[in-house]
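Quick one:
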Amino acid sequence: MVRHLFDAGLRLHMFRGRVDGMPPEVTDEFDVVLDDLDTLIRDSGMAMLTLTRVRRDEGGRRGSRRSPS
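Output:
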């Protein structure tokens, strides 16, 4: 999912760089959408890193919970 979001964001950034002559209202709104997408990509990536770290710390066990020591 994160990879697809990144690819879509990259294509939109490339499109934004090629398009000239758009009204300022359109470019402003386009920039807001790109910023939101960048935030979504970053947050999704951070969530995946956190999940990976938790799984590693639990020893890769699926569905198991640590019992209190």
